[in-house]
Amino acid sequence: MKRRVSLVIGLLLLAVTWLGPLPALAVHSFTAHMSMHVLVIAAVAPLLALGTAQEQWDPVIQWPFLFSPVLASLIELVVVWVWHTPVLHHAARHIPFMLILEQGSYLIVGLLVWLAAFGGLPADRQARAAGGIAGLLMTSMHMTLLGVLLAMADRVLYPHAGLAPFGLTSQQDQQLGGVIMLVFGGTSYLLGGLYLLAGLLGKERDHVSTR
Q1: How high is the mean pLDDT of the chain?
Q2: How far apart are CA 208 and CA 211, in angstroms?
Q3: Where do transmembrane segments lie in this chain (predicted)?
Q4: Mean pLDDT of the 146-161 span
Q5: What pTM does this model have?
Q6: Above 70 in pLDDT, residue 104?
Q7: CA–CA dist 190, 9 (Å, integer)
Q8: Within the chain, what is the greatest distance between any pair of CA atoms?
Q9: 93, 103 in Cβ contact below 8 A?
Q10: Residue 204 pLDDT greater than 70, yes or no
Q11: Can you tell me the distance from the alpha carbon of 49 to that of 25, in angstroms, rounded to the nearest whole number?
């Protein structure tokens, strides 16, 4: 039941993210664009993964060799940082097809990371959880680094087509977007890694107490 609820909430949140006001705002607002990014990878992806993991349609059970947690984290790192190069970032904000491609790739790599950490057969959970901790913490670190770079940059890295909304300057808009990445993007993966770690430590404690 909990998994179905997680799946439904994830799908609803994805619909709000992609069909709500954020795509239109993202043309002029770096913060809106970053909010879409963070919602997809740090909220929608884990909800969908938790709703799918260890169920009969869990892809990790079918193709475990495709879901190495550390490799998944490295793939996400490449995808996220490539889309934040100025040229591709600008294209995603002003060309609808590029925005669809960007957001779709974020969802795919987000699901890849979260499913690699939480999916798979119950018999393989301990080994996969250990790898999942490493993968999620690696992702948390590079998300945090990206957020810091954006928030602390002393110049506008992504010029807007016009003024940013809400009375913000382009610099302030970029800084706020960086803070969103730093706080919500990095924290989501960190909490996921800590959750897996707590589960492993609990199992180890139970194992010792039964000896």
Answers
A1: 88
A2: 5
A3: 36-53, 65-84, 104-121, 133-158, 178-201
A4: 86
A5: 0.89
A6: yes
A7: 21
A8: 67
A9: no
A10: no
A11: 28
Structure tokens at 171: 């610099």
Q: Are 115 and 53 in contact (CB under 8 A)?
A: yes
Cβ–Cβ < 8 Å for 76, 109? yes
The residues spanned by each domain of the chain are 2-209
Using DSSP's 3-state secondary structure scheme, residue 166 falls into coil
Cα–Cα dist 57/50, whole Å: 12
Note the pLDDT of residue 28: 86
The pair of three-digit structure tokens given for residue 7, joined into one six-digit string: 């799946």
In this prediction, residue 162 carries a pLDDT of 57
